[in-house]
Amino acid sequence: MLAELAVFFKMLSEPVRLRLLSSICTEGEATVGELVERLQIQQSVASKHLKLLFESGFVGKKPDKGRTLYFLPDDTLCDLCGLAAEKIMSRATYYRELLDGAAPRSEGV
User: Fold this and answer.
1) Which residue, among 90, 33, 4, 22, has the nearest Cα to 98 in the 3D structure?
2) Which residues are in the HTH arsR-type domain (predicted)?
């Protein structure tokens, strides 16, 4: 189980993949071309990472009027990334308060 968990988190360790997932989470399903425009990345980069995300089950794809749409099968990844972002923001606030000399409101780490 731990090995599978490590593989799962390894898929999330690449910034481009996180950006692709985040875009689909926030802006909805999209074609490769739409994701390229949204993220201002090269088509080959988007295709490579979407292929990995699809093969790992992180995204699904479906035909739509002669094109392929990438989507998230459920909201689990959006929720997970949201929790991680909250934790990072909490830690940043904690350390900013320490640097400013204020007593931190919470441990944050």
Assistant:
1) 90
2) 1-92
Segments forming the whole domain that contains residue 7 = 2-73
Structure tokens at 72: 């998230």
Cα 108–Cα 90–Cα 19 angle in degrees, nearest 5:
135
Which residues contact residue 52 at a Cβ distance below 8 angstroms, ignoring those fewer than 6 apart?
11, 17
- The whole model's pTM is what? 0.84
- Which pLDDT tens digit goes with each residue over 25-38? 999 999 999 999 99
Are 87 and 66 in the same domain? no
Query: Do residue 90 and residue 37 come from a single domain?
Result: no
- Given a contact cutoff of 8 angstroms between Cβ atoms, the answer to whether 40 and 69 are in contact is no
The token pair that represents 33 in the structure block: 């071309």
